C-alpha cells in the first residue's frame, strides 16, 4: 500500500484525535507514502472533501477532544450508487485503502463499501456508547463515563444539601453501558437502562423506607436516554405522584466532548497502530477491537449483524451495593 485515507464518522467521541494521529504516524512509519484525511465522514468522501496529511498535521492533537477531521451522519451513503461514486473518488486520487473510525452505523457503511467496491477497509470502534459487538471497549467510552461522574459528584453535593432526588440522564439511545458503569461508580440509588425493565414502585418503596429510617431523601437515579425521548420526564412525573420532588439533569453532549482520558488515548493509539499492521498484513473488512485485554480483529460482518449485550452480573451490581 502506498496511499491510504482516514475518516471519522457518526457521533464523535473523545479519542478520535489520538486514533487519527496513530493511524497517520503508523502509516508513514510503516512505509506508506501518502495519507489522506477525509473531512466530515462519508459526507466528505462523496463530496471529495479530502486533504493530504503529513506527520506534522497530527502534532498536538493527542490530548484534544472532538475530531480534527470533523464528523457527520451521512444518509446518502446508504445508497449503493453513492458508494460506487465514492470508490471512484478514492481511485482517482490513487487511494488504495480506507480507515473508518466510528460507531455501528459507520461500520455498516464500511462493510458495504469494501464488499461492493473491493477497496480494503479497516474499522476502529469510536463511540462513547461502547455498544459495538466484538470489542469489549470503544474509543471515548471511558472519557464519557468520567465526564458524567464528575458532573454527578457535583449534583450529589446539592442533592444532599437540599435532600433532593435527582434524575440524571446519560447518553445511550439503544444501550445502557454508560448508565451502568456511571451508576455503579457514582453510587446511584437506581439505574434505568433500555435493556431491562425497571420497577418504579420498588424504587418508591425503597425511598420511603430510607426516609423512615432517617437516611434522608436525597439520591441519584441514572437514566439512559433510551429510544423514548420522554422517559426521564415520565419517571419524574410518576415520582412526583408518589410524593417526591425530583429534579432532572440531562448531561447530553457534554459526554461527547473533552480531552480524552489516559485510557482512551492508549486505546486509540494502540488500535490505530494495530489497524495499520493488519492492513499491511493483508487483512480487509475487519474492525480492530479489544477482547479480554488483547487487540483482535473482528470481521465487519459480525460487527454489524450481532448485538452487544449488557452484562447482567454487572448491571446487578447497581442494586447489590445499596445500603
Ligand atoms: O452514538 C453516540 C451518541 O452520543 C448516542 O449516545 C446519542 O444517542 C446520539 O449519539 C446523539 O446523537 P446526535 O449528536 O446526532 O444527536
From TrEMBL:
Subunit structure: Homotetramer.
Active site (catalytic residues): 129 (proton acceptor)
Activity control note: Allosterically activated by ADP and other diphosphonucleosides, and allosterically inhibited by phosphoenolpyruvate.
InterPro entries associated with the record: ATP_PFK (IPR022953), ATP_PFK_prok-type (IPR012003), PFKA_ATP_prok (IPR012828), Phosphofructokinase_CS (IPR015912), Phosphofructokinase_dom (IPR000023), PKF_sf (IPR035966)
Signal sequence region: none
GO molecular function, one term: ATP binding
EC number: 2.7.1.11
Biological process according to GO: canonical glycolysis; fructose 1,6-bisphosphate metabolic process; fructose 6-phosphate metabolic process
Cofactor requirement: Mg(2+)
Physiological role: Catalyzes the phosphorylation of D-fructose 6-phosphate to fructose 1,6-bisphosphate by ATP, the first committing step of glycolysis.
Keyword Cell membrane: no
Positions of ATP binding: 11, 73-74, 103-106
Originating organism: Neptunomonas concharum
Protein name (record): ATP-dependent 6-phosphofructokinase
Family under the similarity heading: Belongs to the phosphofructokinase type A (PFKA) family. ATP-dependent PFK group I subfamily. Prokaryotic clade 'B1' sub-subfamily.
Claim: Metal-binding is one of the keywords in the record: yes
Sequence positions that bind ADP: 21-25, 156, 187-189
Amino acid at each position: 500500500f502506498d496511499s491510504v485515507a482516514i475518516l471519522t464518522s457518526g457521533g464523535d467521541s473523545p479519542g478520535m484525535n489520538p486514533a487519527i494521529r496513530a493511524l497517520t504516524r503508523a502509516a508513514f512509519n510503516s512505509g506508506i507514502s501518502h495519507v489522506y484525511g477525509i473531512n466530515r465522514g462519508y459526507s466528505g468522501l462523496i463530496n471529495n472533501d479530502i486533504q493530504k496529511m503529513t506527520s506534522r498535521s497530527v502534532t498536538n492533537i493527542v490530548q484534544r477532544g472532538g475530531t480534527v477531521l470533523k464528523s457527520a451522519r451521512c444518509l446518502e451513503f446508504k445508497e449503493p450508487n453513492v458508494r460506487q461514486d465514492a470508490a471512484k473518488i478514492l481511485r482517482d486520487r490513487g487511494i488504495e485503502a480506507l480507515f473508518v473510525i466510528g460507531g455501528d452505523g459507520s461500520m455498516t457503511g464500511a462493510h458495504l463499501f469494501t464488499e461492493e467496491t473491493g477497496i480494503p477497509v479497516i474499522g476502529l470502534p469510536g463511540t462513547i456508547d461502547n455498544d459495538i459487538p466484538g470489542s469489549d471497549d470503544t474509543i471515548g467510552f471511558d472519557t464519557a463515563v468520567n465526564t458524567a461522574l464528575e458532573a454527578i459528584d457535583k449534583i450529589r453535593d446539592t442533592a444532599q444539601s437540599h435532600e433532593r432526588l435527582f434524575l440524571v440522564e446519560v447518553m445511550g439511545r439503544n444501550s445502557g453501558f454508560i448508565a451502568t458503569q456511571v451508576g455503579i461508580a457514582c453510587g446511584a440509588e437506581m439505574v434505568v437502562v433500555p435493556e431491562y425493565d425497571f420497577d418504579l414502585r420498588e424504587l418508591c418503596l425503597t425511598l420511603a423506607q430510607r426516609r423512615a429510617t432517617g437516611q434522608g431523601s436525597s439520591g441519584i437515579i441514572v437514566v439512559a436516554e433510551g429510544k423514548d425521548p420522554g422517559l426521564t420526564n415520565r419517571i419524574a412525573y410518576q415520582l412526583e405522584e408518589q410524593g417526591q420532588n425530583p429534579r432532572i439533569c440531562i448531561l447530553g453532549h457534554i459526554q461527547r466532548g473533552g480531552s480524552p482520558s489516559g485510557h482512551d488515548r492508549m486505546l486509540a493509539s494502540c488500535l490505530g497502530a494495530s489497524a495499520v499492521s493488519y492492513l499491511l498484513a493483508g487483512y480487509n473488512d475487519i474492525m480492530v477491537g479489544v477482547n479480554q485485554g488483547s487487540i483482535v480483529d473482528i470481521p465487519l460482518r459480525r460487527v454489524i449483524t450481532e448485538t452487544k449485550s449488557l452484562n447482567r452480573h454487572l448491571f446487578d451490581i447497581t442494586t447489590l451495593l445499596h445500603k
